[in-house]
Amino acid sequence: MDLGLKGKVAIITGSARGLGAATARRLAQEGASVVINDITADRARETTAALRDEGLIAHCVTGDITKAADVQRLVDETLATFGSIHILVNNAGAPRDKYLVKMSEEEWDFVIDVMLKGAFLATRAVMPGMIEQGWGRVINISSRAHFGNPTQVNYSAAKSGLIGMAKALSMEEGKYGITVNCVAPGFMETEMIQALPTYETIKERALAMQPVKRPGSPDDVADAVAFLASERASFISGEVLHVTGGRFG
Question: Where in this chain does the record put each Ketoreductase domain (predicted)?
C-alpha cells in the first residue's frame, strides 16, 4: 500500500533510539526525508548514519527540545536542508518515576517540560509553515499511561496532556489541511525498558494484563505513526490510536 509519503519531510523528536528511531526509519522507508533530533548528540549521529547506510534520506539536528532557541534552530535547519516540513512526531520523553509524596519539584518539571512543553514548542514552530502549504501531520506519542499508573503522576499527566493538546489542535488546524493525532503505546520492548533491573517483572505483569500475549515492538508504533502521517489517514484527526495489544486500563 502506497502511503503517499514520498517527498515528504518529517521531524521526529527524541529519535536517537527506541520508538523514535524506529519511527524515523519507517517514515524514511516510505520515501520521506527524516530529521533525527535528540539531546544525545553522539547517539543521534549514529542513528542518522545508520539510516544513510541503508540508503535512506536522513539529517541530524541535536538540541534540547525544552529550549525555544534549540527548537527554532531545529526548524530553521530542516527548512534550509529540505525546504519544507510536512510531518512532526512529538516523541521526546523520559520518565522520572516515584510516588507523589517522594517526587521532587525537579522530577515533576523535567517530565512535563520534555514531553509537554517540548511538544508545544515544536508544534508552534512548525505550524506556520504547515498552514502556508495547506498540508501537515502532527502526531504526539502519548502512552497507555494516560489512564494512570502508580509512581507515574508526572508521566501520566504529561501523556494525558499530549492527548488534550492534539484534540484542541485538531479543531484549530483542520481547516488548513492539517491533522493532529496521538499514538498511545503500551508495553514496548525498547532498549530503555530492557535495561531496567525490574524488566522481567514489568514484562510478566504487562503480558498478564493484555489480551495479545506478546510484547510490543518499536516497529508496531512506527507502523501506526506512518499510517496517521499518510494520505490514507487524511480524514482522521483528534484521535488516539492505542498500540497496546488490547490493554486499556
Answer: 8-186
Torsion sign (Cα): 120, 91, 201, 191: negative
Which residue of the set 99, 155, 176, 199 is catalytic? 155
Domain interval for residue 26: 9-188+218-236
What is the domain-level CATH number for residue 30? 3.40.50.720
Digit-by-digit pLDDT tens for the chain (249 residues) are 789 999 999 999 999 999 999 999 999 999 999 999 999 999 999 999 999 999 999 999 999 999 999 999 999 999 999 999 999 999 999 999 999 999 999 999 999 999 999 999 999 999 999 999 999 999 999 999 999 989 899 999 999 999 999 999 999 999 999 999 999 999 999 888 888 888 898 899 889 999 999 999 999 999 999 999 999 999 999 999 999 999 987
Q: Is residue 65 part of a domain?
A: yes
Q: Is the dihedral of CA 236, 162, 38, 117 positive or negative?
A: positive
Give a yes or no: residue 27 inside a domain: yes
Q: Mark whether 155 is an active-site residue.
A: yes
Q: Would 106 be classed as within a structural domain? A: yes
Alpha helices, DSSP H, located in 134-233? 153-173, 191-194, 199-209, 218-229
**Domain total of the chain:** 1
Residue 138 in domain: yes
Of the candidates 231, 225, 237, 249, the residue with the CA atom closest to the CA atom of residue 91: 225
